[in-house]
Amino acid sequence: MTTIYFERPWALFLLLPAIIIILILSFRNFIKFHDNFEKQNYLKRRRARRFWMGVSRVIIISAVIIALAGPSTIQEQKQQGELRLKIFVDDSRSMELYDTGVAQRLKDKLSGSFPVNIVGTNEKAESRIGDFLVRNMNKNDNILLISDGQVTSGKQLADVLLLAHNLNASINTVQLTQTNNDAWVTITSPDISSSGTDTPVLVTVKKSGNVPSTKLTVIADGAEWTSEDVTFNSNGVFELPLTRNFEQGTHQIVAKIDAKDHFLENNEYRAVIKVEPKPKVLMLTTSQNIPLVKLLEKVFDLTVVPVLPSDLSSYSTIIIDNVKADNLPSIGAISQFVSNGGGLFVIGGPASLDRGNYKGTQFENILPVAVGIPKKDKNQSPSIALVIDVSGSSGAAFSSTSNKIVNAVQEDIAISILRDLKNDTKVGVVAFNTKGYTVADLQEKGKQAGLEDKIASLQPFGGTLASEGLTTALYMLSKQSGSKTIILISDGNTQLSGDAKVAANAAAANNIKIFTVGVGAGTDEVFMKQIAQIGKGSYFQPKETDRIQIILGGPGDNKANNTNSLQIIDFNDFITKDLTLIGKVTGYNNVVPKSSAKMLVALNDGRPILTTWRFGLGRVAVLSTDDGTGWASVLLNNKNAPLVSRTVFWTAGDPRRNKNLDVITTSGVVNEPVDVLVKSNNLPKEEGLSFAKTDENLYTAQLVVRQPGFIKVLGQSIAINYPTELAKLGASDEFLSLIQQSGGTVYNEEDTAAIKKAVQEHSILTEVKAVSWAWIPLLIGLVLFTLEIVLRRLVDSRKE
């Protein structure tokens, strides 16, 4: 069925006024008569003529106005474009594991049907597939990309595939046959640690293909630390977590595997760990026999005083434990200490915070919390936008052990969050793929019948632009008062991730917090965490979403109010990572996190227990319960004790802050520029290096190392490891998913008939044209006008 549309629809509004004017002019008399008899006689003779002339003029003017409006239809014209196939081959070293001869074999089979060109990336050391596609891709191209999809630098494939869509270029790929196998080892460890504490070291061995059994040996400072037989899990990964209480100084760690595989250089990995002296911590308290002191003395150089000394420069952080506002030290001294990079840890209790008259003091300005009970405005209910990813990638399996797809799990999570919300909470729902769609406008939850059914009916299709979902939610919430929150539920595999970050910044500028929930085995957690960080929120895994309700203000109308149980809110912070809290506190101080603060631990009714933020160059934390003397003894048991010690470590910041000379860089990659960052009071000097000042007491120089190993710069060690290209091996599942999301196909080598058909179909170009039909009403008007003239002449000639 052909649909007619108007190019200038505004012209149709002229119809009614024009018809009225024509009718008035047609039936109005402009002739003067001698008397009424003459007038009546004239009108009687002219009545029929004037009627038909009026009708004629109405039709003519209507035809002219309709023609002015531009009636048109859309017409598609198909024509055969150029039949041609481009085969792009990834020449990077990671492709040595695969049979790349498939490109030539496919050319031999297909070149009889149309021209086939093979173009290689000609880059061995790195995989910049995205950059290569941008340089070589043209409009309407048919492309077959032979690659493992492991991008090590340059443009992201997701962004390039969106560009391909805009160019009407078809990008497809072929399932590769693996001919070589490889295993590689990496070390994950902190660059710096503190003496007297256990330093975590994670050694990971991964494989691609069938690698024979291998042995892992870990060496610390030239001596064997441990040796293990490697047993890979179903995903081809083996992890060995280690801890050691290193002595003060620089330590060199080496992990080796004896695999009989393709690449030998990635069978060895190096790391450097610098162990600094115990941070000097000053604890201000008037209490006696504090159990917390014994805990802290094990890991810190702790000094306990009843009065703050005048010189604080030698300390990394200050702990103020259960001190009344009247007994607080000079606010100016504390503020300057923190602003210049020092740490502050305020511990509550019966004489602190709301019970110590902190409210309204200058000291409260330094803290990440406002003291007191929050005031609730009945007219300002919280507003929440649930943003759900319905792109094609959400149609993938949730996990290898689940029959559910990602989209179904996302819907379940959204419905679960919705059920936990209070009935007076305003909630709206946004779905997105390459566009944002309003599923439900913002309205009180209790007034939205059938909202769960709307969410459950969402179906996955299309590409992914998280920015569109965030922007739609931002518009939905921007005019609301009270607290405003976006909850983004997605796998994070989006195109134009930079645009999503811009949208998250816009939300933060409008006091809208963003919490993200990553769903699916292929979740891009880095992106989801970045969005949460920009939006001043937190990132959650599906099993952690019950904590969102705690942040939003406690259990909803349908949940039991089991208070005083400790709950970690954000597991992605240094303080809470991999930590489990068990137990209840018997008392707390009433505080409210400030808008820029981060609440890490709360009671399960939403009351804050541990809140942090940055103040100037320093870090501030508030524990809104006591030091374990009365209310929170549970925090001192072996399971929970790391919460307090990690908080002190976090506030202490970089232990190298007060050093006169330190090489900050601890690692680099062979054959790639290594930026050597040095903290020094003066310009560093090292043979072969030229340092330039980049900031106050910070200098940088660049060097390229040709062989892996340990090198020395200014007497300090830097670990140089194998190329990044050899740390990302195996076919990327994300790459195959992106190809399919963008409308491409993953072929087998034998699918030559399907490839031919796809090239032929894609080469048929469809040209969309607007066909104007304005000539028809113009012709009708012209014919009628001509007919009117002819008839008038005939009538007049008869009279003569």
Give a description of the structure.
The structure is a single chain. The relative contact order is 0.13. The chain has 800 residues and is an alpha/beta fold. It has five domains: 4-77 and 771-799, no CATH class; 82-178 and 730-762, Rossmann fold; 278-376 and 556-654, 3-Layer(aba) Sandwich (Rossmann fold), CATH 3.40.50; 383-552, Rossmann fold (3-Layer(aba) Sandwich); 661-724, Immunoglobulin-like. The protein is built from 18 helices and 39 strands. The model is unreliable at 555-560 (pLDDT under 50).
Summarize the structure.
This protein starts with a strand and ends with a helix.
Secondary-structure blueprint:
Blueprint: E1 4-6, H1 15-27, H2 36-69, E2 71-80, E3 85-89, H3 102-110, E4 116-120, H4 129-136, E5 142-146, H5 157-166, E6 170-174, E7 182-188, E8 192-194, E9 199-208, E10 215-220, E11 223-229, E12 237-244, E13 249-257, E14 268-276, E15 280-284, H6 291-297, E16 301-305, E17 317-321, H7 331-339, E18 343-347, H8 362-366, E19 369-371, E20 383-389, H9 406-420, E21 426-432, E22 436-444, H10 451-456, H11 466-477, E23 484-490, H12 497-509, E24 512-518, H13 525-534, E25 539-540, H14 546-551, E26 566-568, E27 591-593, E28 598-603, E29 608-615, E30 618-623, H15 642-652, E31 661-663, E32 667-669, E33 673-680, E34 692-695, E35 698-704, E36 709-713, E37 716-721, H16 733-741, E38 746-747, H17 752-762, E39 764-772, H18 775-799
Parallel strand pairs: 3-4, 3-5, 5-6, 6-38, 8-14, 15-16, 15-17, 17-18, 18-30, 20-21, 20-23, 23-24, 24-25, 32-37
Antiparallel strand pairs: 1-2, 2-39, 7-9, 9-12, 10-11, 10-13, 13-14, 19-27, 21-22, 26-28, 28-29, 29-30, 31-33, 33-35, 34-35, 36-37
